[in-house]
Design a protein that fits this description.
This protein has helices at about 1-10, 15-40, 40-55, 70-95, 100-125, 130-140, 145-150, 155-180. It is an all-alpha fold.
């Protein structure tokens, strides 16, 4: 793991060969990990490449206090689940030639507005409550994954989530009372 961090630091300092070493080390494992979600080797290969393109384009987002492997797998899982969700929606529409009603369109818009309000409310939580709530409720990671990513004990993660959700409820209730919704 320390080797990965060293390679990544070298990559940040302009050494592209170190990034190639990271790709060579994880690409095959990443493809098989993604394949478990998407059930297509071609798609898995494309999504694995997307993971490394994301890393390349967002160099500064990686926090070296966490394992690079964990970070890569989180991105891979996210990209895989997004792909599967998108494919399921497309498949549903093609299979059923479904036409949305005006009410369903309004529901989708309402859901997006609610999600935006939730994200804003999460931003108002103190650190690290906002991190654990975001990872648990938005990214849908397990408590164990959050524990690994944030380098916290499992019991601390559970406590922060419990307190964070309680505080989040208070924030959202204040907003409802303020706007009279």
């Amino acid at each position: 793991m320390e080797e990965d961090k060293k390679l990544y630091r070298m990559f940040l300092n302009g050494d592209n060969e170190s990034f190639e070493l990271i790709i060579n080390k994880y690409m095959e494992k990443m493809i098989y990990f993604i394949y478990k979600f998407v059930k297509s080797m071609d798609v898995a290969e494309d999504l694995a490449q997307d993971v490394f393109v994301y890393i390349l384009m967002n160099k500064e987002k990686y926090d070296s206090k966490y394992s690079l492997k964990t970070y890569l797998y989180i991105i891979a899982k996210s990209k895989s689940l997004n792909y599967v969700k998108k494919q399921n929606r497309i498949s549903y529409l093609q299979d059923n030639e479904y036409i949305f009603t005006e009410q369903e369109i309004e529901d989708v818009i309402f859901d997006k507005e609610q999600a935006q309000k939730l994200k804003i409310a999460i931003d108002h939580l103190p650190e690290p409550q906002n991190q654990v709530i975001y990872l648990a409720d938005i990214e849908e990671l397990s408590y164990q994954e959050i524990s690994s990513i944030l380098d916290m004990s499992l019991s601390k993660v559970k406590t922060l989530i419990h307190r964070g959700r309680k505080k989040l409820k208070e924030i959202l209730m204040k907003e409802v009372n303020y706007y009279g919704e």
